[in-house]
Batch of 2 targets.
Target 1
Amino acid sequence: MPKKPFYITTPIYYPSGNPHIGHCYTTVACDSIARYKRMQGYDVMFLTGTDEHGQKIEQKAMEAGVTPKQYVDGIVATFKKLWSYMNISYDRYIRTTDDYHVEAVQKIFKALYDKGYIYKSEYMGKYCTPCESFWTDSQLDEDGCCPECHRPVKVAKEEAYFMKMSPFADRIEKLLTETDYLRPKTRATELVNNFIKPGLEDLCVSRTTFKWGIPVTFDDKHVVYVWIDALSNYITALGYENSAHADFEKFWPADVHMVAKDIMRFHAIIWPAMLMALDLPLPKHLAVHGWITFLNKQGEAQKMSKSLGNVVDPFMLGERYGVDAIRYHILREMALGADSAFSNEIMINRINSDLANGFGNLVSRTVAMADKYFGGKLPTEREAEDIDEQLIGCVSAIREKVDKCIDETRLKNALEEIFTAVDRANKYIDETEPWKLGKDEAKRARLASVLYNLLEAIRVISTLLSPFMPTTMPKVWEQIGASQSDVTYENAGRFGVLPLDVTVHKGEILFPRIDIDKEIEELNAIIEKNMADAKAKLSDAEKADEFAVPELADEITIDDFAKVDLRVALVKSAEKVKKAKKLLCLQLDDGMGGRQVVSGIANWYAPEDLVGKKVIIVANLKPVTLCGVESQGMICAADAPDGSAKVIFPDQSLPCGAKIR
Ligand code: MSP
């Protein structure tokens, strides 16, 4: 009988910076599901790739002095290196710069145009450059900024093609609320209330302001704008509208698209609309997970960002603790739908408790006892007791539970189920006290039963864990004397598979216990250095990008402005104001006989930083008394992104008293 197909996808990643642990989550999760399904006997297609077009990449390449293609080639190589390092068993890797994808997207765009779903018009809206997204006023956050990255947006207008969305609104609402497409389904409410109920707006699907995109064949001023290009990857990679592949019939519709919450809207609304417009079947499930956030020293969860320097490097973690421990940790911590905070402490505690003390210890104790009491080879006599049934019952039941979790994309729960069996087996050791049995020759058969039951429990557990930790489990099989045919999916649902006289082989410690204090100190030092480096490295443009520009004050006339008398003045002397930590008292030459000004800049400037420098003052400000000291005017300074104030130093050749207009 031919194997049943199973198609699972990650998002295609932007190669605009090196991948980090956050990118690993979806990929490791999909990999574990793909491996599990292969183990179950499915014919699996696991797709990942990179989303290589767009203005941001064009800009980054320009800054780096290379072509966009050269730029993405370098980063794609790092992504591929990471996936191979993390043991990601993808079957296909799509790059949106691949010729077949370009050709297919052009055909898809034209087909949608010919069907009347795409039309030409003019776009005016709020545009977020970093996210390459236009937003409507109702979508902006409460500060009027981008709802995704919360950075300021700008008003932009251009000729563009649009895709009609309203014809699909009812079907999409039903898809989200009446089917189990969306996981977790609780997220449907926000989509329906925020996007569908207010009326689905047509989608801008082309751009004319940059070149690095797929050209629209019938209007070469335009390139296809991100989502039609990116989302189509899920079908072009199978050969839709191209001849590079021929698996579309076999694998479409996808069984699972897995994405993080920030791109849920595109996959829950726009993607189904595109497929409906193309008359294609819809994917079966969209699994949406949260972000891996970084828990900073203050206990606040921050989004990982290169500019903050808080991105956790998977290569570094893998070198220290092993790739499987990292895979386990990220999958075990994140519940579908919720964010999960990453901290070095949580990670190390998790590895120590579950892997070193829990599973690792179960294996090493069992193998060591079989070695010590029986020279590694179990005798065939047996003596069962009632308590064995509890262990056997628990272990035999987990495969079915794990199957269900995998089918519902609940990987954290799948691991929890498996670890209930680990705990049960460790408890069984405490209950049966094999070290006591080992002292009594008359208990040989009982001891053999106990150790055999433990080896069987380990066999089942390690088989079910192998899709999650594919490097370590073969080492376990070697230690417990299991052959390849013992560790199949079928045998993971049975007890009593290993030969009665199985031979164990003591091996390396699977998950060495981590010295938490030492490691935390070292990891914290690494992250602090990264944060400091990131701060120092931020280009001025990026700093400006990070900075939330305050709202513009109400409009004034030139006459209003003329009322403010700004002048150049020289700081002759300066001193701290006693009893007022923030204040400096400055004596100024203002070209008009001199004056004294008190300024709240003592946190950032020492008196010697200012003496001898020319500054700008508001010369006609009504005097006030600050902490008992009179201030005749104020010094002009700008608010910096880090919360400090930066004094404005004018051209130092200007004479004192020069007027600024
Ligand atoms: N190119 C688009 C996806 C197009 S799919 C047709 C994109 N790329 S991305 O590289 O910015 O992000 C890819 C995925 O990684 C997104 O789901 C994003 O949310 C996810 N993650 C990026 N950082 C993450 C964490 N810190 N934690 C979990 N997932 C994160 O969006």
Target 2
Amino acid sequence: MTNELLSEWLQSSNSTVILTGAGMSTESGVPDFRSTSGWWKNIDPRTVATTEALAQNYSLFHEFYKMRIENLEKVAPHEGHQILADWEKRGIVSLVATQNVDGFHQLAGSQRVEELHGSIRSIRCHRCEKAAPIESFLHKESCVHCGGKLRPNVVLFGENLPQVSWNNAMEAIRAAELVLVIGTSLEVYPVNQLPMMTKGKTAYINLDIAHHAVQFDLTIEGKVKEVLQQLPL
Ligand code: OAD
């Protein structure tokens, strides 16, 4: 029933924005952050994904991001990512805004993607901002231009979101007729504010919807891949 309703909304909406989080990629073998098997169950984010860790505990910072980059070599987008890319081609989706840094939406073929928390697939110098090869980071080398510390182009705790991506996502969501939120705990500010900025309809697909059910017009509890595969579209 809810599946049919969401399909109808997707078909009748003239502008749909998808907002994804780590739950979008768990079925590809990328752990999320806050589930029992998520990254943050073993590691406190304040000790590692911060500018303080980068400055004062670079070994730990480097080890954490090296592990996440190397893990990406073994995994790939799943059919759910491909379904979203197909929806874009068919004019069902206007934009994917994601908190994920894995680049899976683009790899699956989505072209209009805003990476609100950056990308782990590119590296820059924390001091002079110049780009560096990913291998230099993996080998724990310093910046060849200024000797600064290399880091992935992700948003660390305490840093601002990429302004252009944020503005594009916000404008699209404000104007959207439908916002479909997929696989995020909605615990992290400011992205968790985005779904409520629309005047359009809102829907939420997640393994666990209990905390946010009242916020949305429609909720579907389940695994992203299965739910997307089963939508009659
Ligand atoms: P979380 O780990 O906080 O939430 C992931 C959500 O996806 C949870 O509610 C899970 O129940 C759900 N989930 C997991 N697997 C699923 C599946 N197969 N199908 C459906 N739902 C599933 O991840 P995010 O909300 O993305 O930021 O976290 C937001 C930000 O917190 C991340 O971007 C990261 C982190 O700190 C930075 O690193 C800046």
